[in-house]
Each structure stands twice: as structure tokens, then as C-alpha cells.
Amino acid sequence: MRHRSLMTSLLTVGLVIGGGITAISPAQAYGSLGCRWVNPAVQLNAPAPLLSAPAWGTAASTWSWLNASVTVSSSGSPDVYGTYELWGNTVTWSGVTRGKGTAASFPPCNGGNWVNGQMEVVLNWSYVGSYSAAQRQGVAAHELGHALGLAHNPSSRAILMYPDDSRTTSVPANDDRAGINAIY
Asked: Under a CB-based contact definition with an 8 Å cutoff, are residues 157 and 166 in contact?
């Protein structure tokens, strides 16, 4: 009888846990900033002589094969500008997505759409300069996730959109990719 009670309890716990996992679709595990690009083929300008260019290039490639993508281009009119700045310890961020030319203002969003050429993604080289290439790529890919419209997701450090640099991935996780596919 005791064995049956234990089995019933384990089965109930399994159903509750399993039911909770299966009831949440991957696209529900993301947060949206409420804005997206009209053209989901987003052009990022991060010129090759720029110290942060390798991080932006590898980060952009991690957002391919989705309903929206980021490619690095040094010509034409980019949607987003990628750069780096030296803020020392005057700020607490390693990266930021902001309106172009602002200190940290939300990028312009017109009717639910980002405004071309009015957004920049920035790495704070004072922090990320000492990071490994994979960690820099993770910060850059995280900022590009914001540029595509994803908000922070504090549910797991294994998700790229986790709100701080203790995340354990440098590429979009299933939740991040499902979020982009749901937004676009």
C-alpha cells in the first residue's frame, strides 16, 4: 500500500509538472518590447575597423534562419548601428540598445515598428574588453535580440535574453528563436 501511495504521488507530481511544461508553448516564454521591423531582414552597420566589429558580426550570424535576421552591411542605409563606447564604471551595463545619439533612450517606435536608422546597439568596452570572444558575442547577440524586439526573459540563465551577463549561452536559445518567430 505504501508503495502504491508513493507511485500515485510521483505520478501526480509528474502530471502536474509535465502538464505545466506542455501547456506552455515555446513562443509564450518570451517577452516582446512591442515593436518590430517592417522588413525583417535587418541591416546592421558595424564597420570592420571598429574594435567591436567581430563581436557584432558573429552575433548577427546567430540570428539567421528565423522569420527575422540580422546581417552586417557597411553600405546603404542601415537599420541599426553597432558600436562600442568606453564608459568605465560610470554605468552598470555591458551593452545597451537605444535611440541613435541618445544616452539610453528607448529607440523610436512608430505604430509598432522600429524607425530605420534610428537605433544603435552598443558594447561597453570597459566591461566586455576583458570578456572572452564568446562572452562578447553573447552580449552583442543579446542586444541584437532587443533590436529585433525581444525583452528580457528572467526565467533561465540558459536563455540569451536573460537580463545580465551571468547567462550561460552566447547564442539564441529555443525560447529566443521562438519569440522572434512569433513576433515576425
From this structure: yes
